[in-house]
Amino acid sequence: MDIAALQSLYADIFAEWVRELELEVRATSDDGVTLALPVRARHVHAGGVVCGQTLMAAADTALVLAISHRLGGFRPQTTVQLQTSFLRPVGKDVAEVTVEARILKSGRSLVFGEVTLRLPDGQVAAHATSTSALL
Question: Name one Pfam family in it (predicted).
């Protein structure tokens, strides 16, 4: 799938609140996709940083797109496990976070992946690993 097809898939299959993240597909590779997550005031909690739920939703969404890219199209799937480590805060002044999703192994029914969420200077803000079941 190319960037335009993945962006269209994002607009078509995800819940409205996920689309409100305004993720933008920036690049593809053989094993994954790279997205941009624009930081908006609605993503920032009272502590002045982007809430973890926003980062986890972006990671999970990126993996669905990476799996779809690997399979050559969308196939119904569900997240079985998503483990996220938050390494650095994403401050309210950050313009966007880069979300890099990569497929580690794809089987007949399970797909294993990882996501790195980076600050504009390249530092890792969060890292997630995931297992998804193909339905």
Answer: 4HBT
Q: What are the residues facing 129 on neighbouring strands?
A: 83, 114
**Which of 101, 31, 19, 24 lies closest to 59 in space, CA to CA?**
101
State which H helix or E strand residue 128 sits in. strand 124-134
The per-residue pLDDT for range 22-48, each reduced to its tens digit, is: 999 999 999 999 999 999 999 999 999
Residue 19 and residue 10 in contact, taking contact as beta carbons nearer than 8 Å: yes
Strand, helix or coil for residue 99: strand
Provide the whole-model pTM: 0.97
Residue 48 is part of which domain span?
Answer: 3-134
